[in-house]
Design goal:
The chain has 375 residues and is an alpha/beta fold. It contains 13 helices and 9 strands.
Length: 375
C-alpha cells in the first residue's frame, strides 16, 4: 500500500508560486537599459490601483529631469512621452537656450507606464507578467505622473504640459483631469479622445504583433523572437507616420538614405525591432482607449469646457495618424484655445526634428505660448 504524506496549504502555495514564477518570469530585453536610453530615476508608487481595479504592486514611475526646481516650485514643465518612446527621444528638444529652456524651467519628463522603463509587461514578474499584464489607460498613466509631480516634488502648478502623439493624448488628460494645476498645454498631433480612425489603426498595430508566429499569446521565450511582427509594425508606421509627400517627393533623400527601401528598413523597421511586443500592445491599447472626457462622464463638450489652461494644440499638415480636422473639432469648446498649424512634408513624425524647419516651427510655438500671460 502506498503512503501519502500530508502537504500543508502553505507548502502548496509556495510550490505553486515557484511554478508560476518560472512560467511568468519577466523577459530580459537589453534594449530597456540605461546603456541604451540613458540614466533615469524611479518614483515608487507602491500598490498602484488601475482604473479597472487591477493593482500593480511596487509600481515604478520612471522619469528624468532637466534644470532646477526654484524655491517657489512654479517653474515646472511636464513633457510627456509618445507611443513606443522614452525620455531619450524627447530629451533633445529641451535644453539651455531652447524654447523649453532648462536654465529657466524645471522639466519633468515621465516615462509612460508600459514603455519598458516604467512598470511594464516586460519588467513585471508573477501573475501580471508579459501577456498577462492588465490593461492600462491614459488616465492611469497621467495619475501616476501626477503622483510623481505632486508627491515627489511637491509641485502644485505646472507652467506647461506638452507632448507629442500619445504624449499629446496625455497632455489633454492632464489639462482635463487637473484643470487648476495646468496653466498652459501644447498637445502635439493628438486628440482629446481617440476617434474611429485611431481605433482601426491601433487594431492593426496590435494584430501585427499578435500574429507573429512566435508570439504565443504574449509568452514568447526570447526577447527578440517576434521580429517579423515588429518588422510588419515598422512597415505599418511607414504608411501612417509620414505623409504621402514624403515618398512622392522623395524627401527621404535629404536624410541621406540610398533608396526608399533603405529608408523603410533603417527608419521604420529599425525603430521597432529592439522593442518588446507586449509593451507595444499595452501602449497601443491605451492609445486606442484614450478619452479625457471620461473625467466628465463621457461628455466631450463638458471635458473641453473643464480645461482652464491656455491651450495651443499643434497640428501637422498631412498627418495620417491624427488628422487636423479631428483635432480642431475636439477643441471647439475650449475657452482659451489657439490651433497652431505646422506645414511639413514629414506629417505626424515631424516632432522628431529630422527636418530642421519642423523643429524651428514647434520651438517658436512653445516660445510664444510660454510668453503668454496666464491666470
Amino acid at each position: 500500500m502506498f503512503k501519502f504524506k500530508t502537504i500543508s496549504l502553505t507548502a502548496l502555495i509556495l510550490l505553486a508560486g515557484l511554478s508560476l514564477s518560472s512560467v511568468n518570469a519577466q523577459i530580459n530585453n537589453e534594449f530597456y537599459t540605461p546603456e541604451v536610453h540613458g540614466a533615469w530615476e524611479e518614483y515608487n508608487l507602491g500598490n498602484f490601483e488601475l482604473e479597472n481595479g487591477a493593482v500593480l504592486t511596487d509600481c515604478k514611475q520612471a522619469y528624468v529631469t532637466f534644470g532646477k526646481l526654484n524655491a517657489q516650485k512654479d517653474n515646472v514643465i511636464v513633457f510627456t512621452i509618445m507611443y513606443s518612446g522614452s525620455h531619450m527621444h524627447m530629451a533633445p528638444l529641451v535644453g539651455p537656450g531652447k524654447a523649453i529652456d532648462t536654465d529657466k524651467y524645471f522639466v519633468i519628463m515621465p516615462d509612460l507606464l508600459c514603455n519598458g522603463i516604467s512598470t511594464s509587461p516586460s519588467n513585471t514578474s508573477g501573475a501580471y507578467s508579459m501577456g498577462a499584464f492588465p490593461h492600462v489607460t491614459v488616465g492611469d498613466m497621467v495619475r501616476a505622473q501626477h503622483k510623481l509631480v505632486a508627491e515627489k516634488f511637491g509641485v502644485e502648478e505646472v507652467q506647461m504640459v506638452t507632448g507629442w502623439s500619445m504624449g499629446g493624448q496625455q497632455t489633454f488628460e492632464w489639462a482635463v483631469r487637473y484643470p487648476d494645476m495646468v496653466k498652459r498645454a501644447a498637445p502635439i498631433g493628438a486628440t482629446l479622445k481617440a476617434g474611429p480612425w485611431n481605433k482601426i489603426l491601433t487594431d492593426l498595430v496590435m494584430n501585427s504583433l499578435r500574429r507573429d508566429p512566435n508570439f504565443n499569446n504574449g509568452f514568447y521565450t526570447e526577447p527578440h523572437a517576434c521580429h517579423q511582427g515588429l518588422r510588419d509594425l515598422g512597415r505599418l508606421f511607414s504608411l501612417i507616420g509620414a505623409s504621402k509627400e514624403m515618398y512622392q517627393g522623395e524627401h527621404w533623400k535629404r536624410m541621406g538614405f540610398a533608396s526608399q527601401e533603405d529608408f523603410m528598413r533603417r527608419i521604420w523597421e529599425q525603430h521597432f525591432l529592439p522593442m518588446d511586443p507586449n509593451n507595444l500592445i499595452a501602449m497601443a491599447w491605451a492609445w486606442q482607449h484614450a478619452d479625457a472626457s471620461l473625467n466628465t462622464g463621457g461628455d466631450l463638450v463638458a471635458a473641453q469646457k473643464r480645461i482652464e489652461a491656455k491651450m495651443w494644440p499643434i497640428v501637422f499638415t498631412d498627418d495620417m495618424m491624427f488628422d487636423a480636422s479631428d483635432i480642431i473639432e475636439q477643441c471647439e469648446h475650449i475657452k482659451d484655445c489657439k490651433i497652431c498649424k505646422v506645414p511639413t512634408a514629414w506629417g505626424h513624425f515631424a516632432t522628431l526634428g529630422l527636418f530642421p524647419e519642423d523643429t524651428e516651427a514647434i520651438e517658436q510655438i512653445w516660445k510664444d505660448l510660454l510668453s503668454e500671460k496666464v491666470r
